[in-house]
Structure formats: structure tokens, C-alpha cells
Amino acid sequence: MKNDSGMDAIFRPKSIAIVGASRKKGSIGRNIMHNLLEYEFNGPIFPVNPGADVIHSIKCYPTVESIPYEVDLAIIVVPKQYANQAVEDCGKKGVKGIIMITAGFKEVGGDGIKLEEELGRLIKKYKMRCVGPNCMGIINTAEEYSLDATFAPAFPYRGNIGFLSQSGALGAAILEHARDLNLGISQFISVGNKLDVSGNDIIEYWAKDENTKVILLYLESFGNPRKFTQFAREIVKEKPIIAVKSGRTWAGAKAASSHTGALAGLDVGSHALFEQCGVLRVNTVERLFDLAQAFAKQPIPKGKRVAVLTNAGGPGIMATDAVVSVGMEMATLSKGSVNKLREFLSPEASFSNPLDMIASANEEGYYKSLKIMLDDDGIDAVIVIFVHPVHINAKGIAKSIIDASAKHDDKPVLCVFMGKKDEDSGIPALQRAGLPTYQFPESAAIALASMEKYYRIKNRPEGKVKRFKNIEYEAASAVFDRAVKDGRERLTDLEVNKVLRCYGIPMPPFTIVKSLEEAVRFTDQKNYPVVLKVSSAEVVHKSDVGGVEVDLRNEAELVRGFMRIQENMKKLDKPVKNYEIMIQEMSKGGKELIIGTSYDPSFGPLIMVGLGGIYVEIMKDVSFRINPITDLDAREMITGLKGYSLLKGVRGEKGIDIDYIIEILQRLSQMIGNHPCISEMDMNPFMVFPEKEKCLALDARISLHKAEAVAMKGIFKTSKPKKK
User: Considering 71, 376, 439, 646, which has the largest number of Cβ atoms within 10 A of its Cβ?
Assistant: First the structure.
């Protein structure tokens, strides 16, 4: 299939030059030349080396320009000081694609950065596509190309998996492991420094490649996260994308003034991005291959109901625990299925789920039992476990499983063969037949759960980003513009209250009191109980400094609470002198949420919702998404919380108004989009009730980007919504 992205020059070249081809054994230049020939590339190969006449029995040329034929792709493996001159020669020759194996560019810093900048200018000047620099190369196993342009020692099998690795060294190990598992690759690329060809380019290219059915990614960083989200959301409707992302922990502590900021660690943006666009994320390369086996070779289950077939009780129990723990369900065998099973299985067998055929189970038992399970309409997927007894032919068992599953191409069958791994174990035969095979039940259960999740992702409706009309944009902008102009890093409590109300996010009315007498006069007009809070630019978390007094039920308690706050402000290591005290009616009942935002340098604003209160940073039951969010994003954020069952209502109590919380999250999303000067924000607690009209933010804080960042970047200027 022709692709107009320029990537065909990389993956589908008609001719290749190896600039830096070598006779020296063990050299990268020789290994690449060897792999191209050994894998039988279907086109002419031109070695380029001014110090040789012939390499690998092929005529060698002193320069690319001296080649008397057209060259589509040049693989450059010369020392870094000659690399850019080689690219210049390729540009003059009319070469369309470059694979820059050579290292020593941006990744080493210093002069390497300048060298890469010059390489970038040459690539643009001659309108070429470039993979790398500092990469391992690419592979295309399609029969019409048979292209292995890497220096990896293992040749991949032909298959339907596209694999992108940001690490060359890891890429070589991945290719080796894929071969061990009998997993076939359609295309492979090591992207290196991603000067030109990025992960986004590859994903978009593979979306249109008929030979690629599953996309695997090993990522260390994102180049353009928003572009990735845009592509991935569309692609996952047709092809699963499975990713392992390194860099999951902080190298150092991040200073954050809000709970949201403290919870938004290094990996939160990546996780939010994957969830929003439907990419299946795993934590290890081993788990990546567990999923790859299943997705590449088996149909996607249409439900959660799993049956387990085993010849040993213990592994069957392990499988049951694993299935349930990953959110799948143990299927119930129909009466008809059980009756059929009783006709040939031992009376000692367990005719429930898991179906334990006991250790005497033979080839016939596995074949008939698996066929009955696959015929059962109440079963969506089957895990087949075999523990190797001495007297049973494992290869025969494998053949029985292969034959039974071949008659059903609509339900996945995953195998767990515990024990030997050699040819006689039956495992290689299962893998060659397209049956994923694992050593332990947990891996099979996780793979099935991921497949079922992908089924839901593939079929979920498109979300909508809602824009509310009943907002007071100009009034909110005036507040932010004044604070930015004054060089402040936080809004005052009064300003926060005004901004939230401008966006239809309710807060209880409050009054600033300068004396105890004013507080008492407030209660003459309002009902007890009341709440007192300190309000000061010097105080971020009020409860941390003893600046909150709640549930004050009479005048005596009000007086004591007022005096306690004053005393607490004096006792601090750095006493707070400039403060006021807020008083407001206390909200009764309800459940506490935290809703907020934090700015991530790579992903932009992240929106968070979670179970709130003073223990939020300890419990960490929170969910993040990248702004802007759709109504579907907001709903998934809420339903994905561990404490979601509490919000739905337990033991007869009414659940909260979920739809209204979705609306609040979308109102916050609109506010963040309109006012990019917001750095961090918390509404904690945001009290939620079954009744929409009772829900409100009891406390909130908004931090702004530092004034120098606003002045330097100019990107934080308040952005007025476009009129339709």
C-alpha cells in the first residue's frame, strides 16, 4: 500500500546504500550488510566505502554520488564527524530516506547538540525522512521487501505485530524474545533521538499498513503528546496499541502547593494520556509480550465470562483467583455442558468452574472438554491448564487443544503449560498454532482482562467536550489579569470564590470578619453550626496550620474557635501576621471529593478527581486526565476510583449525583482552557450529595504560574473563547 507520509522510503525502499559498509567482522557496518543479504532484501544494495572495492562480493562505491543508479534509502554508519557530510551527499544524490545509525549527537550533549541541529537542517533542506540518529535501524518482513536493516543478531519471524522501540539495545533483546515465543513481526523500528521520524509518524503509518494488526511501543518520552492522543484515539478503534513507558518515578521531589500538584507525579500525565486515547499500558516488557501473544493470535472476547479447564486442582484455584482479581468473571457451565462432560470424564472430576479433569486426563478428555466449553453460549473465553504428569504425552495434549480450538475462531483460548519448555513439552507446537502459552495462570488472566478492556475501548461511544454558555468570562478574566499584573502567585479567597461562581461552580457564601464581634453578628443572621477559616496569602493549606474550626454550634464554641485560630497563627515557626478570618455556614452530611488541576510541562493541564478530605495525599484514590476532557473522560475518572462504590451508595443509602460531578469537571475544564495562567488548583473538599443543589466546594485555592514565566512565554495570557 502506498503511503504519502514519506515513510515508504524508509520501510519500502527499492534500493539501499550502506554508507560505512565494512569488511571488518563484528563491525556495525558489516553486520547491517550481512543482515540485508541474509534476510534476502528484494532490491539492489550499494556498499559505500572509499577504502574498499568489494564488500561481501558486491561492488563498493567511494561515495553515494558515485553510484550510477537511483538510491531510495541510505543507512549511515560512519563516524559522527563524517555523518553530516554523508547526509549532504545523499541529499545531492536525491536519496529520499536516511537511517542514521551513527551515535554521538544530542544524546551526548555539548558539540553533539550542534551536530544534530546541523543534521536537522540538512534533512529539511533536501526534504528527506530520517530515522535516528543513534538508532538500531528498521525491519519490514513483508515478502515483497524482506528488509532487515538492523545490526540485531536475531532475524524475526514474519507476522502481524508492529514494534517501536525508543531504545536500540532493548530493541535487540525484544526481537530475540519475540523469536523465542514464535511471535511474528510485520515491521520494527528503533527511533533513537527522533530528530525527524517520531513515534507519532510510525503509529500513523502503521494504522494504514495492512500487514500490521497489533502495535507495540516501548517509550521513554513523548514528543508531541496531543498529536499522539489524536492519532491513537482513532487507531485503537481498528488496531490495539499496547505500550510500556519507562520513567515512572521521580528522580527528585517536585515542589507543589496543592494536593493535586503533589499527587501529579512524573508518570501521571502518561497514564492519563493512555487512558484517554485507549492505549493499553503495561509496566514491564515481559507483560508487553504476554499481551502481544494474545492480541496477535486470538480473537477478542466479547464479555468477561471465563472458563478454566485443568488437570490439577491447585493451578485451577490459582487461575480462579487470578481471573476474579483482574475484574473478569468465572463463567457458569450450562446444565447441557455438564451432562455432556459427565459422559466421558472420571466421576472424580469437578464438574464446575474450574473444570478439574484430575491428573488422569488424556488427549481425548482435553479435546472433548474444550470443545464443549467453546460451544457453551455462557462462556466468552477459556484458559486451558496442563500440569505435566510423567505418563501423559504433552505433545498429544497440545495437539488436542489445537484441534479443538481450531473449530472456534470467535472465542479466545489461552494456555498455561506448567513444567517443561522443550519441544516435547507441547509449548512450541501451541505457539506455532497461534495459541498463546504462559507459565502461570496469572499471566493468562491479565492478558484476557486486557483483551476484554480493549473490546470495551473499541466499542465505547465518542465523548464530547462541552462548552457552557452561562459563564461570566470577562469578570473571571479581570480577576486573573489583575493577579498576573501584580505578580502574585495565588488568588485570594475572595477572588477564588468569584472565579468559581463565574463558571457556575458553587461555593457557600462567606463573610470576612475582622473581629470576634463581627463573627457573632454574622451568626445572628445565619444558622449554626458555622465554620471559621484563616485567609492569608501566607497560608496554603489551612488545616495544616490550625487555621480551620468546624462545627461550631453556639456562641461559646464560636468564641473559643476564633481565639484558637488567633493563637495558632502566633505559635507557628513563622507566625502569620497578615490574615483575616472567614466565617460561613457549615455544610451538613454528604461525601467529600477533591477536584483540581495541575500543570505538567509535557502534557499541559491535568484534571483530577478523587476522594477528598485531609487524608487525600495518603489515600491517593484519585484519577487524572489531560485537559480538555470529554463527558466520557469525566465519567471514567469517577467510575475508575476505588471508592466509587461509596459514591454510588452502600447499604441502602442514596448515591451522589454523578452527572452533576461530570458537569463540574467539564466546567473546570473550560475554565482551565480559557485561563492558562492557572498553575494549580484544588477544590477540597467538594461536598457531594444525591441532590444536585446541595453540592458545593467548601474550600478552594488557585495558584498561578510565576510572573517571570508569564512574561517570558506569553503563552499564559488569558484566552477568550471563540464565538460561533
Answer: 71
Least Cα distance to 595 among 682, 680, 523 occurs for: 682
SS3 content of the chain, % helix, strand, coil (to 5): 40, 20, 40
399 closest CA partner among 424, 372, 373, 374: 424
What distance in Å separates the CA atoms of residue 67 and residue 44, rounded to the nearest whole number? 11
Strand partners, 625: 607
Q: How many CA atoms lie within 13 A of 633 on its CB side?
A: 26
Residue 177, C-beta contacts closer than 8 angstroms, at least 6 positions apart: 285, 289
Task: Output the pTM of the full model.
Answer: 0.87
The grid coordinates listed for 710 are 508569564
Q: Is the peptide bond before 509 cis (omega within 30 degrees of 0)?
A: no
Q: Under a CB-based contact definition with an 8 Å cutoff, are residues 703 and 257 in contact?
A: yes
- Domains of the chain plus CATH, in order, are 299-459 (3.40.50.261), 509-585 (3.30.1490.20), 591-713 (3.30.470.20)
Let me know: does 277 contact 229? Beta carbons within 8 Å: yes
What is the DSSP pairing of strand 73-76 with strand 184-190? unpaired
pLDDT-derived band at 715, boundaries 50, 70, 90: very low
Q: Is the pLDDT of residue 718 over 70?
A: no
Pairwise CA distance, residues 143 & 151, whole Å: 20
Cell of 559: 468564641
Using alpha carbons only, give the angle 437, 442, 443 rounded to the nearest 5 degrees: 40
Instruction: For residue 657, give the C-alpha cell.
Output: 449525583
Residue type, 75: I
Cα 11 from Cα 96, distance rounded (Å): 11
Q: Are 699 and 542 in contact (CB under 8 A)?
A: yes
282 with 243: CB under 8 angstroms?
A: yes
Q: How confident is the model at residue 560 (pLDDT cuts 50, 70, 90)?
A: very high
What amino acid occupies position 663?
A: E
Strand partners, 158: 185
Q: Is 714 exposed, middle or buried (0-12, 13-18, 19+ CB in 10 A)?
A: exposed
Which tens digit of pLDDT belongs to each residue from 31-50? Answer: 999 999 999 999 999 999 99
- pLDDT tens digit sequence for 655-675: 999 999 999 999 999 999 999
* Closest among 416, 401, 413 to 451, alpha carbons compared: 413
Q: 136 is written with which cell numbers?
A: 538500531
